[in-house]
Amino acid sequence: MELTPKTKRPKGEPCCEPVVYPDVEREQAVRLAMVAKAIGDPIRLQLLDVLRKHAGKVCVCELVPLFDVSQPTLSHHLKKLRDAGLVDSERQGLWAYYYVLPEALAELGAWLA
Amino acid sequence: MELTPKTKRPKGEPCCEPVVYPDVEREQAVRLAMVAKAIGDPIRLQLLDVLRKHAGKVCVCELVPLFDVSQPTLSHHLKKLRDAGLVDSERQGLWAYYYVLPEALAELGAWLA
DNA sequence: AGCCTAAGTTGATCGCTGTCGATATGGAGC
DNA sequence: GCTCCATATCGACAGCGATCAACTTAGGCT
Q1: CA–CA distance, B10 with B2 (Å, rounded to integer)
Q2: Which range, of A23-32, A82-91, B1-10, B55-64, averages the lowest pLDDT?
Q3: Measured between CB atoms, which of A40, A61, A64 is closest to B37?
Q4: Residue numbers of the domain that contains B48
Q5: Domain count, chain A
Q6: For residue B109, how many other CB atoms are within 10 A of its CB?
Q7: For A68-105, how does the pLDDT look when each residue is reduced to its tens digit (9 = 90+)?
Q8: What is the pLDDT of residue B80?
Q9: Which residue, among B61, B110, B58, has the nearest Cα to B88 in the 3D structure?
Q10: Cβ–Cβ < 8 Å for A50, A66
Q11: Which of A30, A72, A87, B31 is deepest in the core (most CB within 10 A)?
């Protein structure tokens, strides 16, 4: 995957002044992109929106009727959000309650600002 | 794609109070998710980071050596960013200069905050 | 003209993702 | 025990996405 070293620019007239090398961001970029990818679906974004606005734990049985997808599909989206560290869940008897973990969202928000 | 109406909840003991229906957000969620998906790749996120920090137009020939991908791949990423409305480009002779359009980023940032 | 060089496009590959139906898990209640 | 019900998981499918090599486009230069 090495880049071909075409950086010779022989004649003169460089196209622009050199850009700072963003190596400090490599690790952080992977984490931030993971979070952004998790938000990069309309259903998951709305799920986060509902969970955030409710500001408490929300039962899955209340989330499923809000979207035009099957229950397994919604469960899949919730798992994606949990794998990205954006939400967590808690079981109480038959029902499962989801809630937002604001940390990862805050980190992405900080980068955006 | 209709959801099976399993919302009968026959016995009693509702799992939680009903959640507000987020229909106002449907259209906006699609747009925001599109933006988030565009940021949801480490290379594109770093591209945006470099372009933002430079605060001016940056030549592609300066961007290519920063990443361990081929030039066509970087061109593909830049196209994705442009299609999402996050950047725009401008040709000057042989070179192409990219710059950030801060609007879409700001909208996502506003939603996060 | 002819060559070089920067950037974009094409075509192919391969892995990931969203979706569903079907099935499994596991608690509640009879 | 057995039966319902809520959620998760599995298997399969279609579509998208990241990547490369190869090629094309188009501007500068001699």
Answers
A1: 21
A2: B1-10
A3: A40
A4: 26-112
A5: 1
A6: 17
A7: 999 999 999 999 999 999 999 999 999 999 999 999 99
A8: 98
A9: B58
A10: yes
A11: A87
User: What average pLDDT score do residues B69-95 get?
Assistant: 96
Q: What is the structure's pLDDT at B3?
A: 23
Report CA(A91)–C1'(D1) in Å, whole number.
Answer: 26
CATH number (domain holding residue B76): 1.10.10.10
Q: Chain A neighbours among B 31-70 (CB < 8 Å)? A: 32-34, 36-42, 44-46, 49-50, 53-54, 57-59, 61-70
Give a yes or no: residue A64 inside a domain. yes
Q: Is residue B50 part of a domain?
A: yes
Determine, yes or no, domain membership for B85.
yes
Show the beta-strand stretches assigned E in chain A.
58-59, 87-92, 95-100
Q: DSSP assignment, residue B40?
A: -
- The pTM for the full model equals 0.85
Strands of the sheet with A58-59, listed across from one edge: A58-59, A95-100, A87-92
| Residue A97 φ/ψ, nearest 5 degrees | -115, 130
Please choose, from the candidates B56, B53, B47, B36, the residue with its C-alpha nearest in 3D space to the C-alpha of residue B107: B36
Residue of chain B minimizing CA distance to A15: B59
User: Is residue B18 in some structural domain?
Assistant: no
Put simply, the answer to whether B19 touches A112 (Cβ < 8 Å) is: no
Torsion of CA A107, A84, A34, A21, to 10 degrees: 40
